[in-house]
Amino acid sequence: MPNELASRLEPIVAEAVTTAGFDLDSLEVQQAGRRQLVKVVVDSDDGVGLDEVAEVSRTVSAALDENEHVLASAYTLEVTSPGLDRPLTQRRHWRRARFRLVKITPVEGSAYLGRVGHAGEKSVRVLADGRIKDVHYRSVAKAVVEVEFKQPPAEDLKALADDSAAEDDKDKKEESK
């Protein structure tokens, strides 16, 4: 029942979150005693602060109240941003992790660390072991941002920035043909 309920609520919640200027990252509905617990995870390219979480919470709450027939019971709403340990599963996750250090576990082979560059349609540029390579999304079993306590090396950022600019120029040339 909660999964079915989440499926029915998703378009309502997604529209409210989009209206507030954010992306719906995930929606989960769980039974919590007599109430439903509606967990909404939102994200954006600029991150999500506490004030934005409050704004999204008000917007989603109003949308749920307008569609109370879908829930048909009391609910508790929990709105949050994704945690640092959220796997990178979509292109926008990779785009938002630009210049971050990521542990990549490929479908085949050993896990490795790489710094994220340009996130394209089918692959992401990664600086790993001093080399820039394209990693196809479908070849990644799991990828998670690693916590860094110091600034990344400037030469790594420069290499990725230069490479991303070259890739953007290449894309523009191909579009103009």
From TrEMBL:
InterPro entries: Ribosome_maturation_RimP, RimP_N, RimP_N_sf. Keywords: Cytoplasm, Ribosome biogenesis. GO terms for biological process: ribosomal small subunit assembly; translation. Residues 12-85 form the Ribosome maturation factor RimP N-terminal domain. It is found in: Cytoplasm. Residues 156-177 are annotated as: Disordered. Its main location: cytoplasm. It comes from the Bacteria. One of its GO terms (cellular component) is cytosol. Belongs to the RimP family. HAMAP family: RimP. Required for maturation of 30S ribosomal subunits. NCBIfam families: PRK00092.2-2. This is Ribosome maturation factor RimP. It comes from Amycolatopsis dendrobii.
